[in-house]
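Hi R.,

Here's the input for the adenosine-5'-diphosphate complex you asked about:
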Amino acid sequence: MLGLMMDRPLLISQLIAFGARYQGETEIVTRTIEGPIHRYTIAEAHERSMRLANALERLGIKLGDRVATLAWNTYRHFELYFGISGLGAVCHTLNPRLFAGQLDYIINHAADRLIFSDTSFAPILENLTDKLGKVEAIVFLCDRENMPQTTLPNVLCYEELLAGEDPSFDWPDFDERTASSLCYTSGTTGEPKGALYSHRSTMLHTFAVCAAESFGLSSSEVFLPVVPMFHANAWGIPYGCAMTGTKLVMPGARMEGDMIFELLDKEDVTFAAGVPTVWLMLLDEMKKQGRKPHALKSMLVGGSAVPRAMIADFEGKFGIDVFHAWGMTEMSPIGTNGRLMRTMQNQPEEKRWDAKAKQGRAIFAVEMKIVDEKGERLPEDGVVFGELLVRGPWIASGYYNNKKASEAAFDKEGWFRTGDVATIDTDGIMQIVDRSKDVIKSGGEWISSIDLENAAMGHPQVAQAAVIGIAHPKWDERPLLIVVPEGGKQPGKEDIVEFLKDKIAKWWLPDDVQFVDELPLTATGKVSKLDLRKKFEDYKLPTA
Ligand code: ADP
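And here is the predicted structure with adenosine-5'-diphosphate in place:
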């Protein structure tokens, strides 16, 4: 027997319409690409999204058409999220940090009809002029005065486009399973693959991340996502802010420690989200200034593991609650959250920080399992580790137009292979041991590069650390520790290895330590192990 309840579709346009109606005064503040701070309300954002939807319709955009964005976190990008998806078209966020070849591949694979681009990315598009076959126009996100000088054909001005349109629009109803947005993985292995979100998956994900036990968004918070809107929908935060009336502060193109600090401080930001490399810059700035941005209480960190030493610094020195979220593009992207349960909150700080270095519990509706090479489930005892698989209503069921990748991504029961290696303990707390391609295989056993890096970062003269496996004639692979020293310091190799001795198993100790000025980053701001492996391609271990 079916229930007798209304079958109203869950649609992204409802978020902004609701936000405008019930918390219309909520502010959205942007450090613009042009420079000045821009501020307006969500009611104004709604009106401009409706103008945009009218403009898209006039340009012939229909249900299911792909419309791309190439943009930083700004109010205009926020409008695009709602205007494009609200109409029933697919908002395809392009990552400007990808190589030209990858962008070319993605734009053509998705068959984007329009690209809405920040002016600063004009050179990227000019480089691709010959490759933009199906793209009918480039719309620059600025007014007439700030339009770039460009050789690109068919260029439009965003503000002019909106100015000519009606400020009201009846958001259409359609099947909630309709595609809403498209985001390609950064393709560190092979071609980028498209995760195609639906209205339903996005809305369910939004409910889940807003819940107090996950991000806990509410109109009492002021949120700054440093995580870019071109990276897995900025972890769903723009949608969540619209749903809850959370003031949203957008950093535009300026991610430097001092610029982020200033924005956090001036806009009374209480809560911020980003990858660890960004928070390292902020931590440096806070140490320099000897204070935290005045209202900042919580920091959400994801994308890669937060070193325990960083958690200890933020909390111990500045009283900021740092917690993990783990997920991936294919998961919309949130799968777990590392907020501590009440029983853990009263533990001594050392214990709390140990617990916070883990990726946390699944958020409601996400299921996790760990399996061995044969796909058999492994015990969840916090010790045994294996490949992590997930399923849930906001997890991809295949890749966009990519049969081969889709076939490889799931097990027999339809669970998605994350490519991560993890433990799960009796309380259901998951800890990432490594990405399966980064784990170091030494003498038939595995060494977690993350654990090793974590331990090394605890050394007072180590600013950043990365560990890669180097071929070894006897052990298959052995760990090489690569260190960026703390400003002006020159730690000794032996001193670092000595420091690690009581923190990790003896056979995990790195065979060598190398020093570098900086670590290469991926398009999503993580340390690029791929580039490190290339850099140390010809390097031979002293033990080999
Ligand atoms: P990309 O593949 O482009 O880096 P994703 O965001 O999809 O972008 O990356 C997902 C991967 O990032 C996960 O599979 C995992 O390896 C890593 N990751 C994400 N969040 C965390 C976290 N909190 N701790 C450790 N690793 C994480």
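One thing worth noting: The CA atoms of residues 252 and 329 lie 21 Å apart.

Cheers,
M.
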